[in-house]
Fold each of these.
Amino acid sequence: MSIIRLSVIQETPYAPTPDGVLVHDAYQRRRRQGKLEALRRPGFANKTSDFAHYIETQVAAEAAKLERGAPVVFMVHGFLFDPKAGVSPEPSDTDNPHSRVYHFQVGDAAHEQRHHTTSWPHWLGFESGDAGEHGVAVAFGWHSAPGLASSIIAHFKNFYSRAYGFAEQSAWVFLATLESAARTAALAGHPFDVFCHSLGSRIVVRALAMAAEAGHRELIGRLRRIVILGGAEYVVEAQLMMQRLLRLADSDPSGATRLPSFYNVVSRENDVLDVLAENFGPRTFGNSQVIGHNGLDTGSRAPNWIDLQIDRPELQRWMAECHGIRISGDRPDNVWDHWYYYTYRGNMELYRRILREDEPWRIETLRRTDTRPPIPEGVPRRWWNFGD
């Protein structure tokens, strides 16, 4: 199906069925299904492990026709998904991420917006059953739905804080997934992209911070573009990641280390859930607002990070006039716009083109002033904040 599925319960990865059903039995290499070994810091899965076997054989099958320039995109969903849930022909009937957003169905747009079930792989340009001819999607389905009552009674935490902790644990599995994929022959030299939403940004930011800290220069160099939608990760954690990435690049005597480009997509209409993230997540030192509000919030523009506020009229006009794309961050008559980032099809068209068109979407190209007005970028401070 040109999609590689992985399910993760905290530190334990699973090779699910082709449609995303979790298989609790021990991994069987012949079937390429089952429970894999838990991955904990500081070790990675070695080249002969079942985990590496699963990633390698899946890549070989799904990337058989992968052509130069076709993207390899690692997709990471956000809060309130459960890989243990059953799969369903109707995406809105389950919280299993493989069935809810990592499918290839195209339904009624209004229904998908109401139930936030829009297909990520389809609208990003991947096609089922083409053996990678249009690229390969890696669907990282992690457990982000701890029970409300059990979190409070058994763990003395609110369920959002526990989910944030699960993301911390699963970040190492995500990094191991990138490492294993980078070692496979079918993807040799092929750049990787990452597409994530909401609390999925915690997994991505943390994984890249760990990779930079460990000096994984070659893997960092393979990463091309990171698209973050409504990021729920703390600003201070993103700043730490960027500091480590820059330090890694500066320590390269050849000056050849290439850092990924970050496209941080935000919306002012997402304030409600952003404030929940800031006030119900675990407390931390430094800037504990989220990147979906403030970006890196460093006071200076980073060369490899751009903030795009999709409900900003100036950016909407620029996208329409310069690229013929209609974007939106505000679903009419709706307060909960947290999923509108990907349920609005014009937005998905923007992400598809960022991931599939190289030169027009380079950050330095977007900021150029010689041929057209530069892209309106940046995140204005919001006029209210329950956490202040």
Amino acid sequence: MPQTADGSSRPIPKGPLILVIDDEPGIVDMLSIVFEKEGYRIARGRSCTEGLQLVERLSPDLILTDLRMPDGSGFDVLHASRQKSPGVPVVMITAYTSTKTAIDALKAGAYDYISKPFDVDELLHVVGKALEKKRLAEENVVLRQKVETAPGALVGVSRKMRTVFDLISRIGRTTSTVLITGESGTGKELVARAIHKNSPRTAKPFISINCGAMPETLLESELFGYERGAFTGAVKDKKGLFQEAEGGTVFLDEIGEMSVTMQVKLLRALQERVVRRVGGSQELPIDVRIICATNKDLAKKVAENTFREDLYYRINVIPLPIPPLRERREDIPYLVSHFLKKVSTEQGIPSRRITTEAMRLLENHPWPGNVRELENLIERTVALEPSEIITSASLPEGFLHPAGVSLQASTEFDLPPEGIDLEAYLEWIGKRLMQQALERTGGVQTRAAELLRMTERSFRYYAKKYGLRKEEEEIYDELAGMPLDEH
């Protein structure tokens, strides 16, 4: 039976392949033993050169590399891996730790950054999370191929979203009426468009209308059309949306806001498949698929006699609930990545990255506004953050102290019931105190550093990290040759 790195005989693992690269043989052997015990397969590179050769020859599921080696660096390994297999996560390990180096690694595409001496349990957790993210991303590619939507329209790898994707694929092949339910901001119209694109009607129009955004008379004329002279301003005949979408799909958003009178007229159109224009007497046949959406409890509205029971059963042929973002938190990293790329492209700037601490804060947020709130936050953060890396200090204060803790609080600090991200909170405090020091000293960094009992070099480093420095000051540092990664 083959022997492992520690000389013992045990079956060769059949799990994911991890490439370990380090110029210290003891580190390579130790990591090999640790990971093989967890069921991983191990490939060993005992120098940067050997590691680069293995990157080209093998197809590892994850790369664990030392940062500094005599014949190269972990950045060389990272760049080679990104060129060959961009989806393979790379974790950096080094004894030469600094915040600047960590940010540089993240900017270059590393998944995470571990400092020596490292905790084995922490390393196993980081590796396991990276491999799980890679697996889910690969599954998401397959799922997204089943749901042919506009690029980037639907993002999710969670079990609940995979169920939604599967339903979209199956519903698209039918002609049944669909009722999409979910809170505001969950993406109900995106789901409706995905159903249309997965249907035989995809070449025909998809027309959307918000039933709660217009008064009853205007909604009727928009849906059914009107005859010339039907009312003041009706100077010619006009087709309604049902006719405009002939052969396609009509999406009735927020149908729960529709008046009872309009509900009666809509029910007849759905049952008889005909419409009568406002001011007209002729019934015109229609061929459209109806998809409705609401953030209301229609069953409750039926019980309260504010929504017709017969219409409810007519539109609720296939119910499709969309989960709120707080119930699919595992999708948040993928949504954040998608929105960062989208916003960066729209603004014509380099794609932004986000630190592990900041991502953890986003994952723990309740998101009452769901995906729409997350997208708006990313857009605002990218616009205001001068650095290419979004840190926890880049986020609004509410993310850092959810229980309302502030710098003006008493010296007695009570830990919130839901806990707190200590590292992120301390970073937030540091940034705010530096801002106050600069305001108090009129922007003079030397005096601000003295107020905070910091060296000027350390103050300049953190000022750059938090985006508190002016461009001319950064140019001055470059001319002076100041090594900003030393603090």
